[in-house]
């Protein structure tokens, strides 16, 4: 992909990673992009770099416009490896360039590079850098999603360079939201936003609410949001802002995600009457088998639904390993405003369903108890219990969901 003009004298010079499928344990079935941006002004300015594997592509894109040695300012909004590990390549071409970064960012990059010869200036929220015709406003966004993170607002162009905020893991030849919607669909784009938020930013809902409120208080006019992953929002940047506010305030669907795994199909058999009971109450339902589904997809479906039922057989008096792994992932994401329950089968002795409830309570999620358990293979009376529990759970989900309208 060549350098792409996003506004006069402002270019995308990043790289598309069509092949990546594992992003620090998060499955990326649609690949990703590493976006960074070059401004041709009196002081030529580069905003962020790319993952080191793609440094040559970035340098080639920059070279289509200017020789990299002409870069005078480098802004590092985020020091994670996929954005900052080509910094040494840039500095090799432009050793006299000045780097602008947060204080925590400076401490962080010192763990990656020898920065003793680099000219580094730290910035904080409200600081403004003039590069000629343009003024760049820095906005610190700590824990979105690293302590060093910040965003850069191009005042005259009304562009928010948002680093990992408002992005998606989505490899596409389309650079903008309107281009992507034309060749794919708005629903696919929305799903990618939700997937990214659920797997990466879920723990930071309160921070996101406060930061978006801070941006609104600053009175920034935003005509374009340019994140470090995925497409650039130029058709409707307000859409992704509204989506983030909805997600940060706990918005979800009136639905139930039945997330389970099974050893000899007994727990799997229980999902059918549970689903019938849920649907009988007029609540939508999706059934997800963990070993047949990427973890990131299961987490996304958990996030989208107001209610979740966790199904697990008992193995050695414990939850089945794949279910334990799923709940471990979810616990780290600190979900809230969800109602949950558990079900499962056992042979010699139970224990898994009880342990699942302990995990759900430790996450401070609402629970509907005692759940349903079946000995060995579910009998007709177990199917009836599952059906009734599904109905009861769906009623509770509807009551709980009504609180968020």
Any overview of this molecule?
By secondary structure, this protein is of the alpha/beta class. The chain folds into 2 domains: 4-248, Ribonuclease Z/Hydroxyacylglutathione hydrolase-like (Metallo-beta-lactamase, Chain A), CATH 3.60.15; 256-399, Rossmann fold (3-Layer(aba) Sandwich). 36% of the residues lie in helices and 23% in strands. It has 13 helices and 24 strands. The strands form 6 sheets. A 7-stranded mixed sheet has the order 1-2-7-8-9-10-11. Strand 17 (253-260), helix 9 (266-280) and strand 18 form a beta-alpha-beta unit. It is elongated and about 75 Å long. The protein starts with a strand and ends with a helix.
Question: What's this model, at a glance?
Answer:
With 405 residues, the chain is α/β, with parallel strands linked by helices.
Q: Tell me about the largest β-sheet.
A: 7 strands, mixed
The radius of gyration computed from the alpha-carbon positions, rounded to a whole number of angstroms, is 24 Å
Low-confidence runs (pLDDT<50, min 5 residues)?
none
Task: Find the CATH superfamily of the largest domain.
Answer: Ribonuclease Z/Hydroxyacylglutathione hydrolase-like
Strand content: 15-25%
Mean pLDDT, rounded to whole units? 93
CATH-derived topology of the largest domain: Metallo-beta-lactamase, Chain A
EC number: 1.7.2.5
Pfam families: Flavodoxin_1, ODP
Organism: Candidatus Sulfobium mesophilum
Keywords: Oxidoreductase
């Amino acid at each position: 992909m060549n350098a792409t003009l996003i506004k006069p004298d402002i270019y995308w010079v990043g790289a598309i990673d069509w092949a990546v499928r594992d992003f620090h344990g998060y499955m990326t079935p649609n690949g990703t992009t590493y976006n960074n941006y070059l401004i041709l002004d009196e002081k030529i300015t580069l905003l962020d770099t790319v993952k080191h594997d793609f440094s040559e592509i970035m340098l080639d894109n920059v070279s289509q416009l200017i020789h990299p040695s002409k870069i005078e300012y480098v802004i590092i909004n985020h020091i994670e490896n996929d954005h900052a590990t080509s910094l040494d390549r840039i500095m090799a071409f432009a050793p006299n360039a000045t780097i602008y970064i947060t204080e925590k960012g400076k401490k962080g990059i010192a763990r990656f590079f020898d920065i003793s010869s680099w000219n580094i200036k730290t910035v904080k929220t409200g600081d403004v850098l003039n590069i000629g015709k343009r003024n760049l406003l820095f906005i610190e966004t700590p824990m979105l999603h690293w302590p060093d993170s910040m965003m850069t607002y191009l005042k005259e162009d009304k562009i928010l360079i948002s680093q990992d905020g408002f992005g998606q893991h989505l490899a596409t030849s389309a650079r903008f939201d309107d281009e992507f919607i034309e060749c794919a669909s708005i629903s696919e784009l929305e799903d990618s936003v939700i997937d990214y938020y659920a797997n990466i930013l879920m723990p930071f809902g309160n921070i996101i609410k406060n930061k978006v409120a801070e941006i609104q208080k600053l009175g920034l006019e935003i005509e374009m949001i340019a994140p470090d992953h995925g497409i650039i929002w130029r058709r409707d940047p307000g859409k992704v802002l509204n989506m983030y506010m909805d997600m940060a305030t706990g918005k979800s669907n009136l639905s139930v995600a039945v997330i389970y795994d099974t050893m000899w199909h007994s727990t799997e058999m229980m999902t059918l009457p549970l689903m019938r009971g849920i649907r009988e109450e007029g609540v939508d339902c999706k059934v997800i088998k963990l070993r047949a589904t990427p973890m990131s997809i299961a987490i996304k479906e958990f996030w989208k639904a107001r209610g979740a039922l966790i199904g697990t057989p008992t193995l050695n008096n414990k939850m089945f390993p794949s279910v334990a792994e799923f709940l471990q992932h979810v616990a780290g994401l600190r979900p809230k405003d969800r109602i949950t329950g558990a079900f499962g089968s056992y042979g010699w002795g139970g224990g898994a369903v009880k342990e699942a409830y302990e995990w759900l309570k430790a996450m401070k999620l609402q629970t509907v108890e005692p759940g349903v358990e079946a000995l060995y293979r579910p009998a007709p009376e177990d199917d009836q219990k599952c059906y009734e529990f599904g109905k009861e759970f769906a009623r509770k989900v509807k009551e709980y969901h009504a609180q968020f309208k």
